Amino acid sequence: MATKQSCMALGCDWRGSSDDMLRAPSPFFDSRETLYGCPACKAVNSLYLVCDEPECWDLVAYGTPTSDGYRSTCSKHKPRTVAG
Length: 84
Ligand SMILES: [Zn+2]
Ligand SMILES: [Zn+2]
Description:
three-stranded antiparallel sheet; binds zinc ion; globular; 2 domains; mainly beta
């Protein structure tokens, strides 16, 4: 499933889908790791997951399991935790 991502590199304000990120096997440590790069500025490790909510581009602050599945949201859009 694609997630929303935002680039935090200096001078870059790329926002988009995880489908558009550059990816490559990591040359470090364990090659099963994948490195992700920004398609705009080519910075690596500058991409951050942003809120699930449409039109919201705040960084994810909470991961919440809900009846609709796992949500990654900013503090404003944190869903109520499902009881039980
Ligand atoms: Zn960038
Ligand atoms: Zn939000």
